[in-house]
Design goal:
By secondary structure, this protein is an all-alpha fold. It has helices at 5-12, 26-39, 58-69, 78-90, 94-105, 110-137, and strands at 18-19, 22-23. Helix 4 (78-90) packs across helix 6 (110-137).
Length: 143
């Protein structure tokens, strides 16, 4: 993640960097931007069936993504993408809860707990993006 091209994407979508009191870390923002741009095959600024049209087997993955992350929308703009990925990341609370309980047991302050939760959420978002990209790689013609 070089911080390059997806930073322009984030400049256009700067309001997405802070969600529900937690903020996205620079590395997480970079990964979100790059993943969106990778999937947005035609570069039109939204994810839609056209982005999967040159990989017919990937249409099933697109349908799964729409149902799981994007309320079955036919197009997914950057806002819906970030919110959908973040919501999925929140569904994987085991590591987050473990880190919070360990921190609470050591008597850390609310500020420290919030920081730990923020880092845990960002880690979960990054893992969600890696899993998504790995799933999409399974549908490439080379594999």
């Amino acid at each position: 993640m070089d911080g390059g091209t997806s930073m322009g994407w984030w400049h256009k979508n700067a309001d997405l960097g802070k969600l529900d009191g937690l903020s996205l870390l620079p590395k997480t923002k970079e990964m979100l931007g790059q993943t969106f741009m990778i999937i947005d095959n035609d570069g039109n600024g939204v994810l839609d069936s056209e982005d999967f049209s040159n990989l017919p087997a990937a249409m099933d993955k697109w349908d799964d993504l729409k149902l799981e992350l994007f309320s079955n929308e036919s197009t997914v703009d950057p806002r819906k993408f970030v919110i959908g990925i973040t919501n999925k990341a929140w569904k994987n609370p085991a590591d987050q809860a473990k880190q919070l309980f360990q921190a609470a047991e050591t008597g850390k302050s609310y500020r420290n707990l919030t920081s730990i939760l923020n880092k845990a959420l960002n880690d979960s978002i990054e893992k969600t993006l890696i899993d998504l990209l790995c799933d999409l790689l399974l549908y490439t013609p080379e594999v």
